[in-house]
Amino acid sequence: MPDAQPIALTIAGSDSSGGAGIQADLKTFAALGVYGASVITALTAQNTTGVSGVHDAPPEFVTAQIDAVFSDLDVAAVKIGMVSQTATIEAIVAGLDRWKPRYVVVDPVMVATSGAHLLAASAIDLLRKELLPRATVITPNLPEAGALLGTPVATVRAAIERQAHDLLQLGARAVLIKGGHGEDAESIDYLVTPEVTRAFSAARIATKNTHGTGCTLSSAIAAGLARGMPLEAAIEAAKRYVTAAIAAADTLAVGRGHGPLQHFHAFMPKHPSGEKKT
């Protein structure tokens, strides 16, 4: 008998240009050796230059997708991304309570890389009160952390860690505030749990092709958890994977705006010398 295939589920919006959302999540799962299933919360009309439309899936169909997946697949971890309306959050919360997955990674997607708002203002309070307390870890970026708390965006380590502790009080078991929006030479993510405060750093890479970075990091963490990694190890591995995917992003030359990451950088053909082509 072969070993059981680790399975991760993404509950998120679909990106028609393929760089973020469901598409980025499934690419990440595949690249990291995890079988990916999906529940689509919304369709977006978007490309590398922006979002031109959002069509929400009916909440009852979100429920149907959740039940179809969990009733048949042995889901080890769930990643939750774009949930643009209150009724969708209610359907997801009910599904989590019904099926009780072991690990839940919540990426509170509020604004796209292009600046488009992807979460209705009326849904923020419900996300804060009902979805975050069911999370193993939440992964807001700096602006999202501030928006969830109703405070200005933190810019220094002490303030970022203080916001992480405040978010922890909302019920999540761990908070990872992403530093991709910072301007330092290093991109530093801060993990805070009741027991641990830790920084994960990587050199900041000069590229405009960062579309889907947050989606990719959260789904990489979910993939690590699905494979049985402890949370800190899953975050460390996810950070390495995303950094390499950003470093290889310019090899894709996709679109005229903020292009996608190279999710399959590990499989890129190499020169005879052993170096990957650039």
CATH topology of the domain at 7-175 and 211-233: UDP-N-acetylmuramoyl-L-alanine:D-glutamate ligase
Name of the CATH homologous superfamily of the domain at 7-175 and 211-233: Ribokinase
Q: What would CATH call the architecture of the domain at 7-175 and 211-233? A: 3-Layer(aba) Sandwich
Number of helical segments? 8
Mean pLDDT: 91
Give a count of the beta strands, DSSP E runs of length 2 or more: 9
Tell me the span between the first and last alpha carbons: 41 Å
What is the strand arrangement across the widest sheet? 3-2-1-4-5-6
Spans of 5+ residues with little confidence (pLDDT < 50)? none
Helix content: 25-40%
- The CATH class name of the domain at 7-175 and 211-233 reads Alpha Beta
H/E element order: EHEEHEHEHEHHEEEHH
Largest sheet: 6 strands, mixed
